[in-house]
Give the backbone structure.
Amino acid sequence: MQTRKLGRQGLTVSALGYGAMGTAMAYGPTDDTESTAAIRRAHDEGVTFFDTAQMYGGGAGERLLGHALAPIRDEVVIATKFGVSESWGPDSRPEYIREVVDNSLRNLNTDTIDLLYQHIPDPNVPIEEVVGVMKEYVDAGKVKYLGLSNTDEESIRRAHAVHPISVLQDEHSIFARDSEPLLPVLEELGIGFVAYSPLARGFLSGAVQSRDGLDATDLRNRIGWWAPGNFEANVEISRRLGELAASKGVTLSQLALAWLLAQKDYIVPIPGSRNQERVAQNVAAAGITLSEEDLALIAEIAPDGGVGSRTI
Ligand SMILES: NC(=O)c1ccc[n+]([C@@H]2O[C@H](COP(=O)([O-])OP(=O)(O)OC[C@H]3O[C@@H](n4cnc5c(N)ncnc54)[C@H](OP(=O)(O)O)[C@@H]3O)[C@@H](O)[C@H]2O)c1
């Protein structure tokens, strides 16, 4: 698979990564054996970039990923995140960052975290102080590159002034477009962009046809795209995008991922799937090039992205 550079500090990863959130939370019941097989399949298909977070199962997601990647640890880039409390609020107090990052190193069973993100901003802790703690780990050789997630221009600039930031991770897909105004800032500062939920949490996979049948614990029950009214409009957008994909002999998820890869050469999408066949299908999107005509048709079908809010 082709590689992409994230930032100017030397971080290079496969053009498509693997997002491990679903292996520990968010999308209903999971099977660790299947998830492990999906992670290893991603690597077999050329993925070298794996994303997790301390909040995914309170460390369980990191342990699963660390275990799955142990035999190939030296061949992959592992990213994790701190900054979310047990009650899912912001918590980037320095002592909590240190506790969480030390746990992440243990959970992932590694001496070094390749890429460490602040997961969400904390209004109670200045970003300079947060990056100062992250820098301690770089200086100690326990973290290689730094990233931010779900944040704004001012915080990116202030953080980058303390220590180079290599990556911004934010939601981005044909459905989620609100991070686009940040792209010029990333270009100016030389920061790469990791696109999370690139399949719009499954909407852009063709698998979403009905609101019924979601497990009660499924996060999507609370997301705006799934609200009555919005949901039906989004199914229709997905149906039209699916027709375009079929006319090109590709799947909807492949179209959605190829669209992201076509936006900028510093964007790396990290789709998540707990099923190895679906992983292989998604990874194949790295070999698909969309034409200007395809991109124009997608813009016509989904000019403003999905209908409703992408958030809870
Ligand atoms: N920084 C943040 O705040 C943040 C927030 C959200 C996510 N993320 C990261 O981004 C990663 C990806 O995002 P995501 O998992 O939310 O959403 P996503 O990749 O947009 O979609 C995942 C959903 O799509 C399904 N799916 C994937 N490929 C499919 C295919 N080919 N056909 C049918 N269904 C398919 C998955 O189900 P199956 O597993 O059953 O295949 C899962 O339900 C996460 O794993 C996480 O690492 C970060």
Remarks:
- The CA atoms of residues 209 and 235 lie 7 Å apart.
- The beta strands are 3-6, 11-14, 18-19, 49-51, 77-82, 113-118, 143-149, 167-171, 192-196, 267-269.
- The chain has a mean pLDDT of 96.
- Residues 3-200+252-288 form a domain with the TIM Barrel fold (CATH 3.20.20.100).
